[in-house]
Amino acid sequence: MTSTAFVTGSTGFLGRHLCRQLMADDWQVTAMCRSIPENIIKGVNYVQADLLDAASLRSALPEKVTCLFHAAADTNTWSKLNARQTKTNIEGTLNLIQAAMQQQAKKWVHVSSITTYGVDHHGMINLTEEVPQEGLGSWVNYVKTKSMAEQIVKDHAVKLNALVVNPTHIIGADDQHNWIRLFKMMINDELPAIPVGAGSFVDVRDVAKG
Known about the structure:
GO terms for molecular function: oxidoreductase activity, acting on the CH-OH group of donors, NAD or NADP as acceptor. InterPro entries: Epimerase_deHydtase, NAD(P)-bd_dom_sf, NAD(P)_dehydrat-like. Residues 6-209 form the NAD-dependent epimerase/dehydratase domain. Keywords: Oxidoreductase. This protein is an alpha/beta fold. The protein has one domain: 3-Layer(aba) Sandwich (Rossmann fold). Helix content is 35%, strand content 16%. It has seven helices and eight strands, in the order E-H-E-E-H-E-H-E-H-H-E-E-H-E-H. It has helices at residues 13-24, 54-60, 82-102, 141-155, 157-160, 179-187, 204-209; strands spanning 4-8, 28-33, 45-48, 67-70, 108-111, 162-165, 169-171, 201-203. The strands form two sheets. A six-stranded parallel beta sheet has the order 3-2-1-4-5-6, sandwiched between helices. Strand 4 (67-70), helix 3 and strand 5 (108-111) form a beta-alpha-beta unit. Helix 3 (82-102) runs parallel beside helix 4. The radius of gyration is 17 Å and the shape is globular. The model has no long low-confidence stretch (mean pLDDT 91).
């Protein structure tokens, strides 16, 4: 029997790679988006819905999908958009959980972020599931709301049959808005200085393969 997937955030950097990987693995893919993209992926079934519109989610999500991949999030770091971000990342996740339960999705894979472990570590650390997460207390709204959304999923983990993944900094092909902007500035000698810091990076294709 063919495995079926429902992917949110399907037009984003990771979401597009995830849809491609699922198709390569012979999954039947339904990709949720707010508007149908011009550069569609052949074979993917695109459906329009909004995380803040519960009725549209129920309509878009097929019954009994093998796995729901929640990769959508508002990643903005501009504080003036905090209210919108909070609604999308928290209320949107709650709406999707309700839809998943009503439509009897068999599994939920939640794409969270490494930032839920905090962003103020000094020096390199090794993270395991036993390391306390500090994101709930962050002053960065993106970090805080991603942490809250992850906790909401964990609270429903048994009913959702949920798995949470926390990717590090994602880089790779087709990046249009993330780290590529900084890399281009460095290449073009447009960055006056490089601040001290460190991080862990992962290829988007490796994240999609999971």
